[in-house]
């Protein structure tokens, strides 16, 4: 079999030449970050990291240095900006990769459209339970932060450890970005076999401690 072995070696050498030489490609990367500076993931904080990654990938002389990542930053207003930008822009050339958006509702719209077009999306957000649906709607989403269900696993472990059976979820629902709602939705989703009740605070229904205490004693 020495002949076959030689052939294999040739093949591997040829393959590695192909791998290192022809992986040159222009990739359009569309990045959605809020220009509004009040978010942890605002443009001013995150853009330097993305530019740094771009520079490092290029400079390393490594496997990916042949790729030219053409990065275009667009605004995310945590509402509709990212979705409309993606739709408008894609009438011409569709991006190859999308980074962001982070906010739940905005990410949902963008990821649905991107998944339909087979464009991968990487987001530090989109943490709600629904995004775990990888069959269709959100097939092309990769999340780089632990989703809310992961936090819920911690609660489930605590409940099992202490043999607790019931919980009252107290949260504020801003009816806009609904981060608190989605956070506790993970708990609700995972702990459906426990006795779970909710006490929701909104702008028109601020915290009323007497009522809250009544809710707690009703549950016991
Ligand atoms: C920035 O976002 C915050 C929080 O959502 C909001 O209160 C503020 O009005 C925004 N600022 C501008 C200039 O849009």
Automatic annotation (TrEMBL):
It holds the Pfam family ANF_receptor. Its main location: membrane. Transmembrane segments: none annotated. The keyword Glycoprotein applies. The keyword Chloroplast does not apply. PROSITE patterns: ANF_RECEPTORS (PS00458). One of its GO terms (molecular function) is natriuretic peptide receptor activity. It is found in: Membrane. Keywords: Glycoprotein, Membrane, Receptor, Signal, Transmembrane, Transmembrane helix. It is a single-pass type I membrane protein. This is Atrial natriuretic peptide receptor 3-like.
């Amino acid at each position: 079999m020495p002949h076959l072995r030689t052939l294999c070696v040739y093949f591997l050498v040829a393959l590695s030449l192909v791998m290192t030489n022809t992986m040159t490609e222009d990739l359009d990367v569309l990045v959605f970050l809020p220009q509004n500076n009040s978010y942890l993931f605002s443009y001013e904080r995150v853009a330097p990291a993305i530019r740094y990654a771009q520079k490092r990938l290029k400079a390393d002389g490594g496997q990916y240095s042949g790729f030219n990542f053409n990065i275009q930053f667009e605004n995310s207003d945590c509402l509709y900006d990212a979705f409309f930008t993606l739709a408008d822009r894609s009438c011409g050339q569709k991006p190859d990769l999308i980074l962001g958006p982070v906010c739940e509702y905005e990410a949902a719209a963008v990821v649905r459209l991107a998944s339909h077009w087979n464009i991968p999306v990487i987001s530090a957000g989109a943490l709600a339970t629904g995004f775990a649906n990888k069959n269709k709607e959100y097939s092309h989403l990769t999340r780089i932060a632990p989703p809310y269900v992961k936090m819920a696993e911690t609660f489930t472990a605590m409940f099992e450890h202490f043999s607790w059976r019931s919980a009252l979820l107290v949260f504020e629902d801003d009816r806009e970005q609904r981060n608190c709602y989605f956070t506790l939705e993970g708990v609700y989703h995972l702990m459906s076999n426990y006795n779970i009740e909710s006490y929701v605070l909104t702008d028109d229904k601020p915290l009323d401690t007497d009522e809250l205490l009544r809710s707690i004693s009703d549950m016991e």
